[in-house]
Amino acid sequence: MPSSVLGARGPRDAETRQELARQLRHTRQQLPIWAGREAIVKAVREHDTVILMAETGSGKTTQVPQFLHEAGVCSESAPLIGITQPRRVAATSLASRVAAEMGEPDPASVPRVPVKKRKAAGGAAPAGRTLGKVGYAIRFDDRTGPDARLRFMTDGLLLREIMGRREQAVEAGAPSHAMLERYGVIIIDEAHERTVDTDLLLGLVRRIQRARREAYDAWRTRQGADSSMDVAPTLLKVVVMSATLDAQKFASFFAEPRISPNDGPVPAPILYVAGRQFQVDVCHTMEPQADLTAAARQTVFQIHTGLAPGDILVFSTGAEEIESLRAELERLNPVVEAHFEQEGKPGSRLHVVPLYAALGAGAIAKAFEPTPPGCRKVVIATNIAETSITLPGVQYVIDYGLAKERGLTRQGQAGGGSVSSLQALPISQSAADQRTGRAGRVSKGRCFRLYTEAAYEDLDVETVPEILRSDLTNTCLTLYSLGINPLTFDWISMPDKSEVAASTMSLYHLGAVVEPRAERRECGMEITPLGRRMVGLPLPAALARMLIAGGEMGPHVARQVRDLVAILSSDRASILHVPSQSSNSASRAAGAQAGPSDFDRAHEAHAKLAHVSGDHATQLNALYAYLDALQEAKASAARMAELGTPDAKGHKSKGQKSALHMHMKAWCRDNWISDKSLVQVLDIRRQLQQLCRAAKIICDDDATPSMPGTPRNKVPRMTPLGTPRSSGTGDASDDDSDDSHPAAGLYVTRGGARGRGAAGAEQEREDYAELRKCIFLGRSSEYAFKQNDGSYLRPGSDLTFRIHPSSTLMNVKPLAIVFEELVLTTQLYARTVSAIESAWVDEDANPRTRAAA
Ligand code: ADP
Ligand code: MG
């Protein structure tokens, strides 16, 4: 029996599914949480809110929803159990797993539901033949069928649902947010992570729960007086699940005021489920380690050659670091072999599996696959493996002690913008202990911390909730849109007031909020029609503002801005691959030929794509160059096919697809463009395409104008049938056939409005002025003027910085610039920079906003 059920996607018949579910049942019964089954169901029946505390891997996420479903906790009028996750990839992969355990069809193997159809079906996914009781919903991708009973989703998505019905509700004088009537239970999972969205949800769900309780109690009282037969309102049960011992805080937050009016609120009950935890020996390094990759490699080597069998889990920081360690470990295999040979021992190979969000659900499935015979598995992960994903069989943990959170630190005064640090930051002691615990699930384990004991002692005891350390612009916008004043919201942890003020100020500059009318004073600020449009776009406020501005400048600019927003939304800072100086020196040390360094070669390649106006346009050029190359490659493949096979009616053989794939990979390599980021950008771009359609932002390459009478069959397909992409995340390494390529059928403009030849010429002429204006409108405070010494100063602040060395404007140094972010490396740099006209700033002295409002 394979322990992973995610590897084999695709339709299974009902019988096979049932058989698999029967087999998995035994595994389920071994989980620690199984013993708490009845107690959990009972507590949920008896209380409005239950806090559940159990170690990672106990079975919280996969089992508790099933327990509640099997026990029939929900009524027919509120049949859904919603389970929120901080990460998309956890939501989709756990939904697949639970579907398998229940013998239900895997929601991930059902084609995506286009927004348009979903709208027609009143927001829900239309009746798909194969969607069963388990569904998931993440941004732009709702796979919840009409029979759904369990719905895994990101916490951001549930937030949107709460905000969704506002317009109608306000007209009717009802509360300003949705009441989540479809749900009988909301499970807020991974609550200990305390992401901003989780915190917002905790507050909003508590409001909704109380409102539904009041409605229910009122109905009960009315029922007593006269037994008029109106429909009973349903209660909302809430389960908060956490893997660390902070349960008390949630319990008092969800205290039930109604039970004992004399004694004050009674905290929600906390259930503890004892996990399975063997002893883990912890080793710290003697000295701080300068090169963590080298230290990790050495540790893996020592474990592999000296210690008993057992999988290794490495907690690294981000995609780049993971890939570089992966490469090192793969190079280690011959050394390992030689070592075993010398010792005269039979030895095994290292089987290296990377695991980070950008790889998508497919990568998670791979991490669960059984280790090939004669191998030791080494999973290199981000903190996704800390609590979201539990890998069985891990006996050794190697911990970098860092996490790359996009933590934002506000610099100084209100409206001053933010500095985002791309450095990985030290984790907390509690996170380090979580990581350590991963080694003790199957038997005694060992944890190797690549930092000193003193460094551990210096760590924060607990992870500081994100709300206390991040930019609150979107959070405040959300609350304002609900008519809630962020300063009086029921926060589980009240954010810094000055942070709220700063965010409110940027919203004001963006034109999203204005000062309230007298009678609405208590709301703090009032949302504008522009702000409302921005809330409707699930993007950071600045990008939403850009996109709206693009839409107003016509379909041509709208397309450019949409594509730029796709680039800016990806995890990586740039689609251009700039090799770091260190990887360069490493490759030299490894015997690479002398001559121009990688850094120089990349620089040369990027110069061909460079646009005089700056990095935004340069990246857009890179994207369009890729799409052009792709189209050309496809055309020539089609010509070849015509010559070769008589029946080549667009049916490409597997070989042709992979040839195209290899061709484009090589193209990326030659042009120093990161194909990994490109895959991600193209995926986001496709999602944005749907989003733009829904938001009526018309782009000139949109082949599906909402004109009545357009024959459906003329419309290029978005998701090819037969090979549905897993979870909206591309995995460049496997099924990226050209058919399932996000760009397939989209970039191609039939009828030649943007034919290939024209594109190149267009790019030469294009000065991207409107695009830059849109960027400027979105980056309301990220602009600066040059000073005499070549550094830049942001008006109204004393913050000076330079243009990042990777920028195309590094030597140009225009008078005025707009930039994406300030990064602090050896000094403060503005990154992703474009030139702007000083005049725009003057025009803009009065808030820039009203046009759209
Ligand atoms: P918790 O939420 O308490 O951390 P989970 O419910 O996520 O625990 O996981 C319970 C068990 O199910 C874990 O031991 C994990 O290894 C296993 N599991 C989860 N997903 C998969 C999968 N896709 N394939 C195989 N095992 C899985
Ligand atoms: Mg879990």
From TrEMBL:
Keyword presence, ATP-binding: yes
Presence of keyword rRNA-binding: no
PROSITE patterns assigned: DEAH_ATP_HELICASE (PS00690), HELICASE_ATP_BIND_1 (PS51192), HELICASE_CTER (PS51194)
GO terms (BP aspect): maturation of SSU-rRNA from tricistronic rRNA transcript (SSU-rRNA, 5.8S rRNA, LSU-rRNA)
Limits of the Helicase ATP-binding domain: 41-263
Location of the region described as Disordered in the Swiss-Prot/TrEMBL record: 578-598, 702-763
Gene Ontology terms for molecular function: ATP binding; helicase activity; hydrolase activity; RNA binding
GO terms for cellular component: nucleolus; ribonucleoprotein complex
InterPro entries per the UniProt record, alphabetical: DEAD-box_helicase_OB_fold, DNA/RNA_helicase_DEAH_CS, Helicase-assoc_dom, Helicase_ATP-bd, Helicase_C-like, P-loop_NTPase
Database matches in SUPFAM superfamilies: P-loop containing nucleoside triphosphate hydrolases
Alphabetical keyword list: ATP-binding, Helicase, Hydrolase, Nucleotide-binding
Domain Helicase C-terminal: 299-483
Family: Belongs to the DEAD box helicase family. DEAH subfamily.
The name this protein goes by in its record: P-loop containing nucleoside triphosphate hydrolase protein
